[in-house]
Specification:
The complex is a heterodimer. Chain A has a single domain (72-293), classed as MetI-like fold (Orthogonal Bundle). The relative contact order of chain A is 0.11. Chain A is mostly helical. Chain A is built from ten helices and no strands. By secondary structure, chain B is of the alpha/beta class. Chain B has a single domain, classed as Rossmann fold, CATH 3.40.50. Chain B has helices at 40-47, 77-83, 99-110, 115-128, 144-156, 174-186, 201-207, 225-230, 235-245; strands at 2-11, 14-24, 29-33, 55-61, 67-69, 84-87, 162-166, 193-197, 210-215, 218-223. In chain B, helix 5 (144-156) packs parallel to helix 6 (174-186). Classes of the chains: A mainly alpha, B alpha/beta. Chain A: It comes from Aeromicrobium erythreum.
Amino acid sequence: MAVRRGRRARAEPVLSTHQPSERQQARERYRRSRALRRGSVAAVSTVVVLGLLLLGVVSSPGWDRVQRTFFDWQDAKDSVGPITEAFWLNVRLFVVCEVFILVVALVVAVVRVVPSPAMAPLRLLATIYTDVFRGTPTLLVVLLVGFGVPALDLAGAPTSLFWLGVIALTLSYGAYVAEVIRAGILSVHPTQWASGRALGLSYGRTLRHVVLPQALRRVTPPLLNDFVSLQKDTALLSVIGLVEALRQANIISNRDFVFTPLVVAAVLFIAATIVLARLADWLTVRSMRREAGGL
Amino acid sequence: MLRIEQLRKSYHGTEVLRGIDLTVEPGQVVCLIGASGSGKSTLLRCLNLLETVDDGTVWLADESGAEQDVTDPRVDVDGVRRRVGIVFQAYNLFPHLSVLQNLVLAPTRAAGVSRQAARERALALLERVGLADKAGASPDALSGGQQQRVALARALAMDPEVLLLDEITSALDPLLVGEVLDVVKGLRADGIAVVMATHEMAFAREASDVVAFLADGEIVEIGPPEQLFDAPRDPRTAAFLARFRS
């Protein structure tokens, strides 16, 4: 379609030659001085609080030993290579899981909202699925799938740890994400359903073209939050024997009797989630501004 | 075109419509007036099948004059809605689509019109409601009057035979009411039957063929606008109109 949704129309700024009055200039001087004051209070108090915290940790009696075992620069440099390499497995797991989770969650959410009688058995299954997997600790699901599925000896059942891990995380997170999407669908105002149906669009098409696009846009920030959590939960798969970042760090730390590799792994996880977390924040602020602007 | 017989509807035991009889000829503009809560909106929602009626019948005639009972539960609901459009007080445009996409969605997805044809028709309709330059805009960048004109164009894009208008100017600033009503006046030329719930008495007097006054879920008085406005027979009609004149 040639005519795309345009950028939000904004009034063109009118260039003004108006000189602020004496009174207005005084107001602005006052506001500037207040802002400066506020900024300096924030800066000073941040430095003081962080400095005290640091001082408290560093001056503790065991700090020397902690520094040697947890924050040793040489140990960090030695372990960062293999751990980063193992972290790629976490990244691959995360990306593959994310795709599967979105598909499963979308299907489950839609099945749960569609009132068609033919869907009744599916609706029941979808409800049981979300109840069961939202209520089971993710670690337990990982153990059950990781050790249980291969033990079944089913023909065609995956035996690769990677895929067993993907299945476990997808099952667990699919239930959460399905509920988020369902909440998004239910949050779209009933008048949107009414105007879609009133134009002669069927239930399915109203859902597909009118309601879902609005729902998904609305739930993107909370969804990203779930994915931040998924990113670090890939570490749970170490318990079924996948040598991902945490497992690799553990191996080195057990070999050399130091904990620095675990800190290295933590830094990698934090670095990866921070990107997604900031994206989620930015999207939240943007959608809030959108909702406010739409009034 | 539309023949309504003894239509009844209640919500939670409260009777909102208590036996409505109304006939709308092709191309006629029928205005429903009456206080809030008198049943105007419910009547319109029943005609578009957004509500299931409790009793009575709505007959919808096609070009050959053959009548179909649209209150029959076996009816093709989406098919009826394609022939009977409705515009709401709160516009209800699709906020995630551009103005043009709002107009193109239903014809392409519900009526099987080709994308190209739907687009051309949509642009022509936008031209007609005076918003050709807003085709690419997002609905929330438009004023209330502009949004309501888009909502009218969106309903017209389905090429309906009957158009139901539910207090479409009630949320608008008096200056914007005129621009919307001008579009409605223009519909007469198309031969579309219009049933309109409204509080715009001047418009009802000037532009309608039939005015019906509703109170407590019944049509108290119905007739040509001159008769209803200048010589109301029922004291309740006179009392209602007197409140508007003062």
